[in-house]
Amino acid sequence: MTEKSLIRKLTAIFSADVEGYSRLMGDDEAATIHTLTSYKKAMTELIKQHRGRVVDAPGDNLLAEFASVVDAVQCAVEVQHELAERNKELPNKRKMVFRIGVNIGDVVQENDRIYGDGVNIAARLESMADSGGICISRAAYDQVKYKLPFEFRYEGEQLGKNIKEPLRVYKVLIDSEIDKASDYTPL
Amino acid sequence: MTEKSLIRKLTAIFSADVEGYSRLMGDDEAATIHTLTSYKKAMTELIKQHRGRVVDAPGDNLLAEFASVVDAVQCAVEVQHELAERNKELPNKRKMVFRIGVNIGDVVQENDRIYGDGVNIAARLESMADSGGICISRAAYDQVKYKLPFEFRYEGEQLGKNIKEPLRVYKVLIDSEIDKASDYTPL
Fold first, then answer.
1. Residues A114, A108: contact at Cβ < 8 Å?
2. Does residue B117 sit at the A interface (CB-CB below 8 Å)?
3. What is the ipTM of this complex?
4. What are the chain A neighbours of B4 within 8 Å (beta carbons)?
5. What is the pLDDT of residues A128-172, one digit of tens each?
6. Triad A24, A52, B165: Cα angle to 5°
7. Global pTM value
């Protein structure tokens, strides 16, 4: 396929996964699947409310896209708030915590799927996030920094597996993190 | 309006204007309008071929948007080639040369219009381009650098009127410019 025949589009990519999923499944499969299903459903609802679309959600992963990266980051913050509330109802060892990465990519669209290094980078950002946290790329940060009321912290350049260049990573400081930004430790 | 009620989207913004338009108009109004109309028509056709849309085209300006910034930069190069060909038919003092700027923005969409600093920055980039040239932002460059066969040259940080931060500007080296990149002078 030549570049010209590809249908491309700029999109905001939202990638989420569960931290410690294997441990949770090892401890209690049925309870983990139950929580995962209900959390994914809540996340999907919030994604729709922010005009996003779930592209794929295999296992403990969820990939979504948004026309706007402002919407994507706003949604990611609301997802983490919502899931933190829900986790309060669960015993410590059953709490299910997601990490989220947000990036911008000029991706290739084929039917309902999206392809491109922008998607891989979103997954890499997600893996750099704290439990219950959000990491975004510089490309995403540059678009949202003056448009959203959140604080961000530059995490420096990070190397990603199979990614050509170091990623410049920003962490979204969610609520309580702002108060203690000076002596911040992961949740 | 609150942030939540705004419809936002990531878009590639293409901004073009005629260099020395006032001089051309002062020399020969009728001929200038004739050329301008025909050049804008050719540009609009190429924009459509690259899945873009003309948003507005007042006077010697043309603002277009593309879902993909790869498409936008590819289109900008083809526009400059096409207009360079057409200019060969015109006497020197009647040649009409466009400058083009390309940027990415998370813009607000209202009906067919788009608003946001991403649009202002595209216009600023355009004003930094050489005659018949193309300047793109770092945000655009980061998305296209591995996806298009063009060479780019970093022009450093440039200050823009009413723009909060210095712009990191890249020039697209079009064809002949590549051969002479070492001793490059504007066309």
1. yes
2. yes
3. 0.82
4. 74
5. 999 999 999 999 999 999 999 999 999 999 887 777 789 999 999
6. 105
7. 0.87
Chain B CB contacts of A11 under 8 Å are 10
B:118-177 residues touching chain A, CB 8 A cutoff: 118, 139, 142-144, 146-148, 164
In terms of pLDDT, which residue wins out, B1 or B12? Answer: B12
CA atoms within a 13 Å half-sphere pointing along the CA-CB vector of A77:
19
Smallest Cβ–Cβ distance between A10 and the set B68, B117, B146 belongs to B68
Residues B167-171: what's their mean pLDDT? 96
Length of chain B measured in residues: 187
- Look at A3 and B139 and tell me if their CB atoms are within 8 Å: no
Cβ within 8 Å, pair B7-A51 = yes
Q: CB contact, 8 Å: A52 with chain B?
A: no
Query: In this predicted model, what pLDDT tens digit does every residue of B24-43 receive, in sequence order?
Result: 999 999 999 999 999 999 99
